[in-house]
Amino acid sequence: MESQRTYSKMHRTQVLTLLRAHAGRTLDSHEAAMTAETIRFVEAYPDCLLRTQLSGHLTGSAWVVDVSRTRTLLTHHRKLDKWLQLGGHADGDPDLLAVALREASEESGLTRLRAVTPEIFDLDRHWIPERKTEPAHWHYDLRFMIEADPNEPLTVTHESKDLAWVEVARVTTLNPEESMARMVRKMKL
Predict the structure, then answer these.
(1) pLDDT 10s digit of each residue in the chain, 189 long?
(2) Which residues fall within 8 angstroms of residue 181, CB to CB, at 6 or more apart?
(3) Where are the domains of the chain?
(4) Beta bridge partner(s), residue 3
(5) Residue 96's closest CA among 119, 126, 128?
(6) How many CA atoms lie within 13 A of 131 on its CB side?
(7) Is the separation of the CB atoms in 123 and 85 below 8 Å?
(8) Mind spelling out the 3-state secondary structure of 122-163?
(9) What is the pLDDT of residue 113?
(10) C-alpha–C-alpha distance, residues 140 and 125, integer Å
(11) In 10 A of CB 26, how many CB atoms?
(12) Which of 69, 76, 60 has the alpha carbon at shortest distance from 124?
């Protein structure tokens, strides 16, 4: 039991380091509040990286952009039926950048992905509705900017209805939610 506590603390330390660095950046008030809430969540729940934490868990997302930073790759998410960035559950992995890279590759078929920076690009906390086998819960989503080549072929998986490279300026026409609009605004800085 003690080794499990040490293992969990070590893994959370890596995530907390990333989160605290993000909290120290200039963020809008909404993102700052979500970042503070995510830090409290990670500090309070040793199993924050696991789906078995039913109140919520950490996820890693990839804001995939082309080299010119004018287009982003979005997925038409099958379960949520909306256009979103690629990403998924940590499933115990404390390296959320690696999670984002893995999910981007798995969900798109892209193989030549590169992190623009190891820092968090954006953070969002969003509510996931109840489904057949799981209760409604929070996703604490750490998002990273990932660069890819739009000429590389895409593979639509069972998780998506479609994949598309979208002009950053058009993202909010597909999904006007604040979490998407905030990432678009950050591209203009």
Answers:
(1) 333 444 455 579 999 999 999 999 999 999 999 999 999 999 999 999 999 999 999 999 999 999 999 999 999 999 889 999 999 999 999 999 999 999 999 999 999 999 999 999 999 999 998 988 889 999 999 999 999 999 999 999 998 999 999 999 999 999 999 999 999 999 986
(2) 171, 172
(3) 2-187
(4) none
(5) 119
(6) 8
(7) no
(8) EEEEEEECCECCECCEEEEEEEEEEECCCCCCCCCCCCEEEE
(9) 98
(10) 5
(11) 7
(12) 60
Residue positions counted in the chain: 189
**Span 2-187: which CATH code?**
3.90.79.10
**Which alpha helices (DSSP H) does 24-170 contain, by range?**
29-44, 96-108
At 125, give phi and psi (nearest 5°).
-120, 120
The Cβ of residue 159 has, within 10 Å, a number of other Cβ atoms equal to 15
Tell me how far apart the terminal alpha carbons of the chain are, to the nearest angstrom. 47
Copy the structure tokens of residue 157.
Answer: 């998986």
Q: Taking Cα atoms as reference points, which of 81, 78, 132, 82 lies closest to residue 107?
A: 78
Whether residue 164 contacts residue 145, with contact meaning beta carbons closer than 8 Å, is answered with no
